[in-house]
Design the sequence.
């Protein structure tokens, strides 16, 4: 559901149908954020490739559940309820600790990373993500050095940066086109991290 025309799964043809078949979840469900691209399938293809590689790739070293925390944090800062709900559900599925997940969400909603049951390095990553989200031009080299100081290597810093940047894009896609969660199955994500071309949602 969006404010622009979208093509439902059953009416898709050609490249769009092929892409839909790659991103579907149970019952041929296509998330509305992907369906919003249906008038420009090449745009959907680019979005999905970025999403899969940034969040769901075996080359990432930061735990997937914490990458989802970053996504929920950035989405909350951007007041993007669609992405908060989707990725909090995914976070809970990956974390497998409902109480801890709820405590993390409470800290996010309070805009207080220090209240979250996260270690010092993870809280530092949230602070970097907040500054990048709220005032990107104010980021300076010392912000990166602060991440190194808590133990992140440069590749992991890149992961933190890319997840934060991806959600800025995803949030603006959703908010700018009026996507709702109506009809979506929350918490599904690509399960095959070893194959960047496998976009299937489970």
Sequence:
């Amino acid at each position: 559901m969006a404010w622009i025309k979208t093509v439902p799964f059953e009416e898709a043809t050609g490249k769009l149908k092929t892409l839909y078949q790659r991103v579907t979840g149970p019952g041929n469900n296509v998330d509305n954020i992907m369906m919003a691209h249906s008038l420009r399938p090449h745009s959907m293809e680019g979005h999905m490739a970025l999403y899969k590689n940034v969040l769901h790739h075996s080359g990432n070293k930061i735990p997937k559940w914490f990458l989802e925390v970053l996504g929920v944090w950035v989405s909350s800062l951007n007041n993007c309820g669609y992405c908060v709900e989707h990725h909090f559900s995914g976070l809970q599925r990956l974390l497998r600790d409902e109480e801890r997940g709820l405590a993390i969400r409470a800290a996010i909603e309070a805009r207080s990373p220090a209240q979250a049951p996260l270690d010092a390095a993870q809280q530092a990553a949230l602070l970097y993500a907040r500054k990048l989200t709220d005032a990107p031009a104010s980021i300076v080299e010392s912000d990166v050095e602060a991440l190194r100081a808590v133990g992140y290597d440069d590749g992991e810093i890149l992961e933190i940066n890319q997840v934060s940047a991806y959600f800025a894009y995803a949030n603006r896609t959703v908010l700018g086109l009026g996507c709702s969660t109506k009809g979506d199955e929350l918490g599904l994500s690509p399960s095959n991290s070893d194959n960047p071309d496998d976009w299937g949602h489970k």
